[in-house]
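ESCALATION

Customer reports they have been waiting on this structure for their group meeting. Please prioritize. Original submission:
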Amino acid sequence: MGAPVKLFADRTHYRPRERAQLSDLLRPYWKEGPFSDEQRRQMYGLSEQDFQISPSLEDADMAVLPMSWNYYMAQGAVGRAKKFVELARRAGVPVLSYVTGDEGVRMPDGFEDVFVLRASGLRSRKTPRQMALPVFLKDPLEHYPGLEGYGRPPRANNSPIVGFCGQASLNPFKPVLDLARTVLRNAGSKLRLRAQEPQPFYPSALLRSKALRVLARSPRVETRFILRSRYRAGANGSEARETTSKEFYTNITESDYILCVRGGGNFSKRLYETLAMGRIPILVDTDCCLPLDSAISWDKHIVRVPLQSLATLPGRVAEHFEGLDDLGLRELKMRCRALWRDFLSFGGYHIRMVRLILKRV
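Update from on-call: job pushed to the front of the queue and completed.
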């Protein structure tokens, strides 16, 4: 293990009541009360052996803009962010920053040398220093240890089992409402009335419904779908949420492949939930950015189907399945789990992401 990476960040930027906008890499190290390194390792998978906060910019390996770009733009504090970046530039230290939420915010001019992490975005528009951010999860196999297993689930025939558990009812008015929201949002963005970037129209509920229908009608795959009329089946209260969560993860573990379609933002949380459970994601690719794409051979772990080729979805899954024997399928599932643990968990991602940045500068 090498020396810890030294991070510089100006804590005067931080507002505890706005902790949701605190840059992710600072969360394990900026706490309001006592917090041991063992607690840090248990909660975040990081320790003081990985990163340390440096009081001196000149002694730092990297500067982290303390709050998200969403925060600086909403608070009219872009000038303060600019001063921070300028100080880092003079010291020759790379700057890391974050964008939060489903929609991206328009980066101010003059920050092209700043590394930006964000979950959303379009691959075709990605800037050289934009990096995709995973959706971070607590390890579901720690919460549901009885669901671990990489063998073949019981099946009716020798076909791939495709699972999905989630909201799938299609309100015919929702695509119309989504289109209206997109038009209004993009108009506000182009008129500089909103900080958010303009977004192409993707009716995610309609897209999910179409993909499920294509799979359900095909004789080449076996489907195990639990279709909800509302998010989390309308669960209220901790007991009901626990029940629906276990049903969700049980559906994953009883499948070989899981359908993953973008939601409000151009990314899929289900992709990471599937990998964490050691199953194979089927990603409907809507020009998505995937994390650490220079270090991860994504197409060796997932089945990626372009949006324009949705009709071929069952065939592609069946061909992928037919190219694996039982041992190969089991090993791929184990590699999917290892990919999440080592590269896409909170600690694993940040360690590898920072290494990649420091190699580039």
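Sent to customer with the following note: The chain has a mean pLDDT of 90.
Escalation resolved.
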